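pinned: reference chain
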Amino acid sequence: TEDTEEVAIWGTGHRNSLVVILRAIFTWQLETHEE
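pinned: its structure tokens
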């Protein structure tokens, strides 16, 4: 059904957002250690 597809899309989008946040934190930590 359409409801199932919407949940699947939301789950993927939520997962991608989490990855972006983790990458940003990881990159920020690397830049901080370099100084």
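why pinned: The chain has one domain: 1-34. Helices lie at 2-34.
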